Amino acid sequence: MSKLKRSTKETRIVCQVIRGTGSAHITVDEPFLQHMVETLARYASLDVTLEAEGDMRHHLIEDVAITLGLALKDEVPTRAARYGWASVPMDEALVEASIDVGGRPYYVGETPSRLYTHFLHSFATNLGATLHVRVLRGEDKHHIVEAAIKATGLALRQALQEGERVFSTKGSVTLERVD
């Protein structure tokens, strides 16, 4: 478990993520972002502490996603179940998410909010996960985005479960930095 501090000319973020009970302590001046991070934490059973401030909404949302992904990357167990998927209905909206936390960053999917499509893309890339999000139906942007976050959280919860073996034909992958 480590605490990340990410600072740029545009944002300042302090974040800690551990697999736990789904509790979230979020301090950010963007109410919908706060709601989405709390939702992701709850549905993924992650304990998230986050303090973030930024010069504009786009920078804040993107940099929070980057930092969350990097913080969670350290929490992926060696023997993770690796794959997870979920469908979430929210009123008229129905969204599916499928994830592989096996270290291959890739994102496919669109929500009706470019900012939250970018949030999911930045999160998955920095987590080192393949994430597919598919909006099956919906009209209300809030419902669609929230269903996408909930589905991603539930899929993450499955993928992060510890198993008895490394779930890969490659076995465990190690990477060593050498001079």
Summarize this, please?
The protein has 4 helices and 8 strands; from the N terminus they run βββαβαβββαβα. It is α/β, with parallel strands linked by helices.
SSE order in H/E notation?
EEEHEHEEEHEH
Radius of gyration: 16 Å
SS element count, helices = 4
> What separation lies between the terminal Cα atoms?
26 Å
CATH topology: Ribosomal Protein S5, domain 2
Query: What's the architecture in CATH terms?
Result: 2-Layer Sandwich
Provide the descriptors you would attach to this structure in a database record.
single chain; alpha/beta; Ribosomal Protein S5, domain 2; 4-stranded mixed β-sheet; 8 strands; globular
Tell me about this structure.
By secondary structure, the chain is α/β, with parallel strands linked by helices. It is built from four helices and eight strands. Helix 1 (31-44) links the parallel strand 3 and strand 4 (46-54). The chain is globular, with a radius of gyration of 16 Å.
Summarize the SSE layout with pairings:
Elements: E1 3-7, E2 11-19, E3 24-28, H1 31-44, E4 46-54, H2 57-73, E5 83-90, E6 93-100, E7 106-108, H3 114-127, E8 130-137, H4 141-159
